[in-house]
Amino acid sequence: MKLVEQVIASRTANRNATDKTAFSILTLLVGELETKLKREGKALTDAPDADVLTMVKKLIKSNNEVISLSTEAQAKKFVAENEVLKIFLPVEMSYGEIEDALTECLFSNVGEAIKCLDAKYAGKYDKAVACKIAKDLL
């Protein structure tokens, strides 16, 4: 099942829940994805997993910025939203796994290394870590 289908199914399952946090944040996620894909002339169901992961990370980052500026009571809502969103994030690759993947790639610069990783592992690794490893391997 594609990640976008999992998001839609989870949103539907939470539609009638007493706590509307999950339904609310998943509706926002679906709306953001629909807007992005409409600009590209695509349907929501055609959303690549990488686009969904990027949007989930963007919403989590935005919530984290709000949390850092909020009181503890105000931050609770955003912390709860992040918990819902984190369900859709894959386990990120470890330093060693990124290093192993990069040793299988043929690259002459960091950009090529990232393209190689994106082809197989899009959204499953920390790009800053991958760039550091790629630089060390050059």
Structural notes for this entry:
By secondary structure, this protein is an all-alpha fold. The protein has two domains: 3-86; 95-137, no CATH class. It has helices at 3-13, 21-39, 49-69, 72-86, 95-104, 110-121, 127-137. Helix 1 packs antiparallel against helix 2 (21-39), helix 2 crosses helix 4 (72-86) and helix 5 (95-104) crosses helix 7 (127-137). It is globular, with a radius of gyration of 17 Å. The model has no long low-confidence stretch (mean pLDDT 92).
Mean pLDDT: 92
Cα radius of gyration in angstroms:
17 Å
Separation of termini?
38 Å
Q: Low-confidence runs (pLDDT<50, min 5 residues)? A: none
Q: Give the number of domains.
A: 2
Report on the biggest sheet.
Answer: none
Using the alpha-carbon principal axes, give the shape. Answer: globular
Summing up helix and strand content along with how strands pair, one would put the structural category as mainly alpha
Descriptors:
138 residues; mainly alpha
Concise account of the structure shown:
By secondary structure, the chain is mostly helical. It has seven helices and no strands.
SSE inventory with pairings:
Layout: H1 3-13, H2 21-39, H3 49-69, H4 72-86, H5 95-104, H6 110-121, H7 127-137
